[in-house]
């Protein structure tokens, strides 16, 4: 299936490229604008409407079923034991022993055991068919995500799914269409948008401290060599072996898209991607797994992949992916505006025009220079002043419960808070679609000499309906 889709995409791409190059010279000798490669945007099925700003009935106690209890899933079960207003109804994994281990988390928290599903590739469907579940929470390997989300929504359940929630454009459109058909929530579990620097910076941006934000960067740079052997059935290595492109873009995309109000006043128009040849993973496969050189180098994904995106409002985003170079962990995260700049890695820092901070209480702001980050004391005062409401309310508890320093707990808490209060979720199905689409779109660009590729408008014309990204809160 994957192969067939890829071939279709490439064919489409080739046809469009052919058209572009042939149409480059207009009839009157005028040079026409170069057209990006376009992928098919299926028409919205008759009778369906978008789910922008979707609100659903309040759920007093959110009844949850978990699918996928490998390295990531049990942490979610653990975090949910600390969230008020939930009931853990069912647990599912291919393997009984993993379900049993997760039951241990419930027992330790003094909660009743959940219904258990395991032993077959399709046992998760039984979980989805239960009539006492409101939310299906998915943390399996990437290929299972989209079919599980679609099926769960078809059974009337809200869904939350680990990153990336969908790997191909066909899967993404299926997920979008199903969310619109069922009018149910479909949230990608992108935790990095809740990290402390990112959310503080978003708040500063929304208060105008950076002036007009023009550019944002993000990445997933993480040497996974110590983890390759731990993924069930080696799914992650297999995926990277077969797939060329940015297969894990959402950690970088999430914070960048939110600060740029993507599909809330702006939209991504085109992207261009490039990659280096793969070296470190093939060498790892030779060294650690005894593969011969030829087989090891039959490896699709580049070692370092870069994508540049241009938006309708003239902004840019730069995203990188690298899971094998010996580099310190980095999600890059940079925000660059007309009046200021934020940078997270390797050291958190801000550079702002002094005038922005007049009357702010930030010490020594009159002496700030655009050539340097502001001094630590000024930065700390600024960050305390612009601490996001979500962090003011949740930081202490989040750090106690943990999960990547607390951001995972905040993500789960916000999901349940919004469901319980009938509020739009922080991330909707179009965020999922846009952030995940980089996988296939970057591949198309790379495989066509790094040609520009159009980013589909997954809202199908409604990207300007909501003005500005904002988190929803209960009105006091
Ligand atoms: N957001 C983050 O920071 C973060 C961190 C780690 C992993 N992840 C994501 O979490 C997901 C899971 O990653 P992981 O590291 O836990 O992988 P894993 O291989 O450890 O776990 C996947 C689990 O899914 C189960 N599974 C597979 N097919 C199934 C089926 N048909 N029915 C039921 N269970 C099935 C497997 O048995 C396994 O236990 C991935 O999408 C990954 O990218 C996200």
Major beta-sheet overview: 8 strands, mixed
Number of helices: 16
Indicate the low-confidence ranges by residue numbers.
1-11, 13-26
What is the helix fraction of residues, given as a range? 25-40%
Mean pLDDT level = 93
E-strand count: 14
Distance between the termini: 50 Å
- CATH topology of the largest domain, by name, is Dihydrodipicolinate Reductase, domain 2
CATH superfamily of the largest domain: Dihydrodipicolinate Reductase, domain 2
Strand arrangement, major sheet: 13-12-11-7-10-9-8-14
Structural class comes to alpha/beta
* Number of individual domains: 2
The run of helices and strands is: HEHEHEHEHEHEHEHHEHHEEEEEHHHHHE
Shape: globular
Instruction: Provide the gyration radius in Å.
Output: 23 Å
What does this entry show, briefly?
This protein is of the alpha/beta class and 476 residues long.
Reconstruct the topology from this structure.
Blueprint: H1 2-22, E1 62-67, H2 73-80, E2 86-92, H3 96-108, E3 115-117, H4 123-129, E4 135-138, H5 142-154, E5 158-161, H6 169-182, E6 186-188, H7 196-206, E7 213-221, H8 235-242, H9 250-259, E8 268-275, H10 280-289, H11 293-296, E9 305-311, E10 316-322, E11 334-337, E12 340-343, E13 349-352, H12 376-385, H13 389-401, H14 407-420, H15 429-436, H16 438-447, E14 453-454
Parallel strand pairs: 1-2, 1-4, 2-3, 4-5, 5-6, 7-10
Antiparallel strand pairs: 7-11, 8-9, 8-14, 9-10, 11-12, 12-13
Helix pairs in contact: 5-6, 6-15, 9-15, 13-14
Nicotinamide-adenine-dinucleotide binds at residues 67-73, 92-95, 98, 121, 124, 139-142, 144, 162-163, 191, 231-232, 404.
């Amino acid at each position: 299936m994957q192969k067939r889709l890829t071939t279709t995409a490439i064919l489409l791409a080739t046809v469009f490229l052919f058209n572009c190059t042939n149409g480059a010279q207009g009839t009157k000798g005028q040079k026409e604008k170069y057209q990006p490669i376009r992928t098919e945007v299926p028409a919205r099925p008759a009778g369906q409407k978008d789910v922008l700003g979707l609100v659903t009935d309040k759920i007093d106690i959110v009844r949850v079923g978990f699918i996928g209890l490998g390295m990531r899933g049990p942490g979610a079960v653990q975090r949910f034991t600390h969230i008020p207003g939930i009931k853990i109804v069912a647990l599912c994994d291919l393997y009984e022993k993993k379900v049993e281990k997760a039951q241990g988390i419930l027992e330790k928290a003094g909660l009743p055991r959940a219904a258990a599903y395991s032993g077959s590739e399709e046992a998760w469907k039984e979980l989805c068919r239960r009539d006492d579940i409101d939310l299906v929470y998915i943390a399996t390997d990437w290929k299972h995500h989209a079919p599980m989300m679609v099926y769960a929504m078809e059974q009337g359940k809200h869904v939350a799914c680990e990153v990336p929630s969908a790997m191909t454009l066909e899967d993404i459109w299926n997920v979008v269409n199903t969310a619109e058909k069922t009018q149910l929530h479909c949230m990608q579990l992108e935790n990095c948008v809740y990290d402390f620097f990112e959310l503080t910076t978003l708040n500063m941006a929304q208060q105008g401290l950076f002036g007009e934000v023009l550019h944002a960067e993000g990445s997933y740079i993480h040497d996974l060599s110590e983890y390759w052997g731990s993924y069930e059935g080696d799914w992650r290595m297999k995926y990277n072996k077969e797939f060329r492109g940015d297969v894990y873009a959402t950690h970088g995309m999430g914070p960048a898209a939110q600060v740029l109000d993507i599909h809330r006043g702006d939209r991504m128009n085109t992207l261009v991607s490039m990659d280096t040849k793969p070296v470190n993973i093939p060498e790892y496969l030779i060294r650690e797994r005894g593969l011969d050189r030829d087989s090891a180098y039959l490896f699709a994904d580049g070692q370092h992949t870069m994508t540049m995106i241009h938006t309708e409002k003239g902004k840019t985003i730069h995203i990188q992916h690298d899971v094998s170079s010996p580099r310190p962990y980095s999600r890059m995260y940079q925000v660059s505006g007309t009046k200021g700049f934020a940078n997270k890695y390797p050291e958190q820092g801000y550079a702002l025009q002094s005038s922005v901070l007049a009357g702010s209480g930030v010490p020594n702001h009159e002496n700030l220079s655009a050539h340097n980050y502001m001094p630590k004391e000024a930065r700390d005062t600024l960050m305390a002043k612009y601490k996001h409401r979500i962090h003011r309310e949740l930081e202490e508890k989040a750090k106690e419960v943990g999960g990547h320093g607390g951001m995972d707990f905040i993500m789960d808490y916000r999901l349940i808070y919004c469901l319980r209060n009938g509020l739009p979720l922080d991330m909707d199905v179009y965020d999922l679609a846009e952030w995940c689409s980089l996988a296939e779109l970057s591949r198309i660009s790379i495989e066509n000499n790094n040609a520009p590729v159009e980013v589909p408008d997954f809202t199908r014309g409604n990207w300007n309906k909501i003005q500005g990204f904002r988190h929803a809160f209960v009105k006091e």
